[in-house]
Design goal:
- Pfam families: HIG_1_N (PF04588).
- InterPro entries: Hypoxia_induced_domain.
- This is HIG1 domain-containing protein.
- Keywords: Membrane, Transmembrane, Transmembrane helix.
- The protein is mostly helical.
- It has a domain at about 35-64.
- Helix content is about 90%, strand content about 0%.
- The longest helix has about 30 residues, at about 35-64.
- The relative contact order is 0.18.
Length: about 60
């Protein structure tokens, strides 16, 4: 179970990093506008919450 959670945490963290990089590249290129930035921000927040929640669950399981 902890191995699965570890992999899920890593995937969520990499997905969050990907969205952050996409947002930075979009802002530096000046294309896409504010609508795309807002969508990427929402995705980042959701993925970041998921990563933190999975990490907290993993830590609780490893504590026992």
């Amino acid at each position: 179970m902890t191995t699965v959670l570890t992999v899920l945490v890593a995937i969520a963290m990499l997905a969050t990093l990907g969205v952050v990089i996409a947002g930075v590249l979009g802002m530096s290129g000046g294309e896409g506008g504010s609508r795309r930035s807002n969508v990427l921000m929402r995705w980042r927040i959701g993925l970041q919450f998921t990563a933190v929640a999975l990490f907290a669950i993993l830590m609780m399981l490893l504590r026992q």
